[in-house]
Amino acid sequence: MTATVRPLQPSDYAAWEPLWAAYQRFYEVVIPTETTDLTWARPMHALGAFDEDGRLVGIVHAIFHRSCWLPQWTCYLQDLYIEDSRRGFGTGAALIEAVAGLARQNGAGRLYWMTYESNATARRLYDKIAERSGFIQYRKAL
Predict the structure, then answer these.
(1) Rounded to whole angstroms, how far apart are CA atoms 51 and 39?
(2) H or E element, residue 88
(3) Helix or strand or coil: residue 8?
(4) Which of 15, 62, 109, 128 has its Cα between 20 and 30 A from that of 100?
(5) Rounded distance, CA 69 to CA 101, Å?
């Protein structure tokens, strides 16, 4: 099962939205429709993995920002979701590598992402292709 990865276009919204909703269910969050619409309209990098029939089966969002630790840009892979039926076939790795390529093209010095400690399936992949930073994330609502 191979996947073709390309940047998402405005015409991909109808295929993107159900994967975005499934991503939210996976992480047990509810993001308001207004925020979803705003997310889609923002200037970020959104890539999609398409199966042999041209169906969108995976999505990833990436954001570039500055860091106090590097002179180059840093790329944050914010969201990654693969349909259940496509997990374990290299689709996630292909999307991550596509973001890594995008980061290299844009002169980024680092690509990073996060996941839940309990996300064992994803962590098996991540442990193969990247190194854990050892940091623990904290959040404070404002």
Answers:
(1) 24
(2) none
(3) coil
(4) 15
(5) 21
Per the CB < 8 A criterion, the answer to whether 77 and 111 are in contact is: yes
Place of tokens 């939205």: 17
**Do 52 and 23 touch, CB atoms closer than 8 A?**
no
The helix (H) or strand (E) run that includes residue 99 is helix 91-105
Closest to 58 in 3D by CA, of 15, 101, 26:
15
Q: Which amino acid would we find at residue 90?
A: G
Q: What is the pTM of this model?
A: 0.95
Q: Where are the domains of the chain?
A: 4-129
State how far Cα 133 lies from the chain centre. 18
Distance CA 54, CA 92 (A): 17
pLDDT in tens, 53-104: 999 999 999 999 999 999 999 999 999 999 999 999 999 999 999 999 999 9
4-129: CATH, from 3.40.30.10, 3.10.450.50, 3.30.365.10, 3.40.630.30 = 3.40.630.30
Which residues neighbour 89 within 8 Å (Cβ) at sequence distance 6 or greater? 1, 3
